[in-house]
Design goal:
Radius of gyration: 17 Å
CATH architecture: 3-Layer(aba) Sandwich
Number of helices: 10
Number of strands: 6
CATH class: Alpha Beta
Oligomer: single chain
Largest sheet: 4 strands, parallel
Shape: globular
Mean pLDDT: 93
Structural class: alpha/beta
Number of domains: 1
């Protein structure tokens, strides 16, 4: 039996509900089409996890591709997981973070919490370009229409007139540079754009390692008198 669409919209923070009201019907259509599929990743109650905090507090956006396709791993925030067994992409992110910290003179024992809730709590929006896939099938929902919804979220952030760092990892994320070209151009004085290869094992050695994105984010925030991110919180 099909679900009653609307759960995903209602799970979002009220600020996001207001911001994304123009695409509510599109989200509900996606929910009707996808939420009852077997082996949905993440589980349908976690799909909107990145949208549960107040969008007014967002100061950094990290855009990935789509959720981890391993059953039970994805939790609705880009690159984040439930549990302790790190997928290769998140392991590479933490490896680069440690190297970045060391180059800046810092040192931490261990990794951040792999749920990355500490990042989200500080205003880091961890957004996949496509919010769902099917377990064991990466990219299964590339053609389902998530781009319209996630582009709308980013368009709202770019148009709100606040400082923002936008981090685009991988080809799917970097397509935003074209689909949101007008908004990026108009917000250029308030948006710092960082692009790089995806941290997956297929590409991390082609430019992700050594890119030092975390210190780059914090240097720009500091230059705008904005509190930098504690990446180990």
């Amino acid at each position: 039996m099909a679900i009653l669409a609307g759960m995903w919209f209602e799970q979002m923070h009220p600020g996001w509900q207001t911001a994304l009201a123009p695409v509510r019907s599109h989200l509900e259509q996606l929910e009707e089409a996808l939420a009852d599929l077997p082996n949905l990743a993440p589980a349908k109650n976690l799909v909107m996890s990145a949208f549960t905090d107040d969008p007014a507090n967002i100061r950094v956006v990290i855009v990935g591709q789509d959720p981890y396709p391993t059953d039970g791993v994805a939790i609705g925030r880009a690159f984040a997981i439930g549990g302790d067994k790190l997928p290769a992409s998140l392991r590479n992110i933490f490896t680069e973070l440690a190297a970045d910290e060391a180059e800046e003179g810092g040192f931490h024992l261990g990794n951040p919490d792999p749920s990355l809730a500490g990042w989200q709590n500080q205003g880091v929006f961890l957004l996949n370009r496509h919010l769902t896939t099917v377990a064991s099938s990466a990219g299964a929902h590339f053609g389902e229409g998530w781009e319209l919804f996630t582009d709308a979220a980013l368009r709202w952030l770019l148009n709100r007139g606040q400082d923002l760092v936008l981090v685009l990892w991988g080809a799917q994320a970097q397509q935003l540079g074209r689909s949101l070209a007008t908004e990026l151009r108009e917000a250029a004085e308030q948006v710092h754009l960082i692009t790089g290869v995806h941290p997956s094992p297929l590409s991390a050695y082609r430019g992700f390692f050594g890119s030092r994105p975390f210190s780059a984010v914090n240097r720009w925030l500091s230059s705008r008198d904005i509190q930098p991110i504690d990446w180990y919180a």
